[in-house]
UniProtKB/TrEMBL annotation:
This is Zinc transport system ATP-binding protein. Signal peptide: none annotated. It comes from Ornithinicoccus hortensis. Keywords: ATP-binding, Nucleotide-binding, Transport. SUPFAM superfamilies: P-loop containing nucleoside triphosphate hydrolases (SSF52540). The keyword Nucleotide-binding applies. GO terms for molecular function: ATP binding; ATP hydrolysis activity.
């Protein structure tokens, strides 16, 4: 999926970080992050609580401090990005407030406010995009319902549709499947699979890799504010098996790998079928 506003060449990385550091109030949380993500990749961002996953994705959105190194989104340095509409964001653990009454359709339409001032009526094309986004997440039949009447999982889908309504070239999702029941997780996974099929580049922060099997084609793991793994799901399974074996051999180091609310994939059993090796891994990650 390419944007009408895309000036960069089609092979320009979606994201290109070189030795980048991010943090808050001048204090680094993440340091020396080198990461390049190409168009169409579906990347799961894993790591224990506090390892810096949210700090990284929020850094890409300009929501915290970029402290060191270099970063570009679609070839534009992070500090020079003015148009953020190419990046869609689904925030973490966010449900829609019950205090404001809005319909599902209205909430999704707010996703276009970055590209359309609130006082200008939506064009036919913009309304069609809202309708299509609702269809993509399977909520077109709930468009007129008060969003507060939807389940937590359905509200996550509303937020994904809201992010899609501006037709971003990359979708960043912070734990889209967290805290929803298994059935809703399956529906969300199907939504992500559909987006992947449309060629949407995705960066998905998650603790629930198993829910995304067959969708994710690359895994980046953070630990203590740095990248501790970057590779395919198959390579990750091998990496985890090694870490688990090393931890068993040296139990006194086990706390380094403690993931307190993670549904940790064990061994290779979680590997599903799917476009696991679809992406060109490149040489220079
Ligand atoms: N707004 C903030 N101001 C200052 N420090 C923050 C802020 N948000 C997060 N931090 C710190 O940054 C570190 C990394 O937090 P971050 O939320 O990025 O981790 P995470 O990997 O996303 O964790 P989780 O899996 O729990 O969401 C933590 O030490 C946290 O205390």
């Amino acid at each position: 999926m390419s944007s009408a506003t895309g000036q960069a060449a089609p092979d320009t990385p979606v994201l290109d970080l070189r030795h980048a550091g991010f943090g808050y109030a001048g204090r680094p949380v993440l340091e020396d992050v080198t990461l390049r993500i190409r168009p169409g990749e579906v990347v799961a961002l894993l790591g224990p609580n506090g390892s810096g996953k949210s700090t990284l994705v929020r850094g890409l959105l300009g929501l915290n401090d970029h402290l060191s190194g270099h970063g570009e989104v679609f070839g534009v340095p992070l500090n020079r990005i003015r148009d953020r509409s190419r990046v869609g964001y689904v925030p973490q653990r966010h449900t829609l407030s019950g205090s404001v009454r809005s319909t599902v359709r209205e909430v999704v339409a707010t996703g276009q406010l970055a590209t359309r001032p609130w006082w200008r009526p939506a064009t036919r094309e913009q309304r069609d995009r809202v309708t299509q986004a609702l269809r993509t997440v399977g909520l077109d039949d709930r468009a007129k319902d008060d969003v507060a009447t939807l389940s937590g999982g359905q509200q996550r889908r509303v937020l994904i549709a809201r992010a899609m309504a501006a037709r971003p070239d990359v979708l960043i999702m912070d734990e889209p499947t967290a805290g929803v029941d298994a059935a809703s997780q399956d529906v969300l996974a199907a939504v992500l699979r559909r987006l992947a099929g449309l060629g949407v580049t995705m960066i998905v922060v998650t603790h629930e890799l198993a829910a995304l099997r067959g969708i994710v084609d690359r895994i980046v793991e953070l630990e203590l504010g740095a990248i501790s793994f970057d590779g395919t799901p198959q390579q990750y399974a091998v990496h985890r098996a090694r870490v688990t074996a090393a931890t068993a051999a040296h139990p006194h180091e086990a706390h380094h790998h403690h993931h307190d609310d993670e549904d940790e994939p064990e061994g290779l059993s979680w590997l599903g079928s799917g476009p696991l090796d679809a992406a060109d891994p490149g040489e220079d990650r």
